[in-house]
Amino acid sequence: MKEDFLHLLWQQQLHARQLVKLTNGQPLTILKTGYRNSNSGPDFEQAKIVIDQLEWIGSVEIHVKASEWNAHGHTKDPAYQSVILHVVWEMDSDVFRLDGSLVPTLELKDIIPLEVIFRYRELMNPSRLSIACEPFLKDMASIRMTSMQERVLTERLERKAGEILNRFLLNKKDWPETFYQSLAFALGLKINSEPMLVLAQSLPLKIFASQGWKQEKVFALVLGQAGFLNEASGPITRELKKEYLFLASKYQLNQNPLAWKKFRIRPGAFPAQRVATFASLIPALRDWFQMLSSANSPKDFFLKNEDTEHSPVVLQLFEELEIPPSKLALSSFLQQALAINFLAPMLTAIGLNREDSTLIEKALDWLSLVASEPNSTTRMWEQFGVECKDAGQSQALNELYNQYCLKKRCMECSLGIFILGKGEGK
Question: What's the whole-model pTM score?
Answer without folding.
Answer: 0.74
